[in-house]
Design goal:
With 108 residues, the protein is of the alpha+beta class. It has one domain: Arc Repressor Mutant, subunit A (Orthogonal Bundle), CATH 1.10.10.10. Helix content is 55%, strand content 18%. A three-stranded antiparallel beta sheet has the order 1-3-2. Strand 2 (59-67) and strand 3 (70-77) form a beta hairpin. Helix 1 crosses helix 2 (24-34).
Length: 108
C-alpha cells in the first residue's frame, strides 16, 4: 500500500523540524518562512498536527524548558519522520515533473 500524501501543514511542520528541534512557536515561524508567508498556522492547528505526527512516530518530544513562566516543549524529527518527509518530497517532485511536461506541450 502506498503511504497517503501529507497535508500541507504536516509537510511544512516536518520540514520545519528537518534541520533542528523547535518549540511550537518556533515551528509556526519556520513554517511561515518556508512557505514565504503563505501558510500561517494557528496554534490549535499546529498542536493537532504535532499530536498526529507524534502518534505516527514521525516526531517526538525532545526536551522541555521554562521560558517566562511557561513550559516550551521542543520536538524533533525521528528517523521515520525523515523518511516520510523524503518520500513526500520525491512524490511532489515527480508530480511537478509530470505537470511541467504537460505544460510544455502546446495545444493544437
Amino acid at each position: 500500500m502506498t503511504p497517503r500524501p501529507l497535508t500541507e501543514p504536516a509537510f511544512l511542520v516536518l520540514a520545519a523540524l528537518a534541520d533542528r528541534p523547535r518549540h511550537g512557536y518556533g515551528v509556526i515561524g519556520e513554517v511561515e518562512q518556508l512557505s514565504g508567508g503563505r501558510v500561517r498556522l494557528r496554534v490549535g492547528t499546529l498542536y493537532g498536527v504535532l499530536d498526529r505526527l507524534a502518534a505516527e512516530g514521525a516526531i517526538e518530544p525532545e526536551r522541555e524548558e521554562v521560558h517566562a513562566g511557561r513550559v516550551r516543549r521542543y520536538y524533533r524529527l525521528t528517523g521515520a519522520g525523515r523518511q516520510v518527509l523524503e518520500t513526500e518530497v520525491a512524490r511532489l517532485e515527480a508530480n511537478a515533473r509530470a505537470v511541467r511536461g504537460r505544460l510544455a506541450v502546446r495545444p493544437a
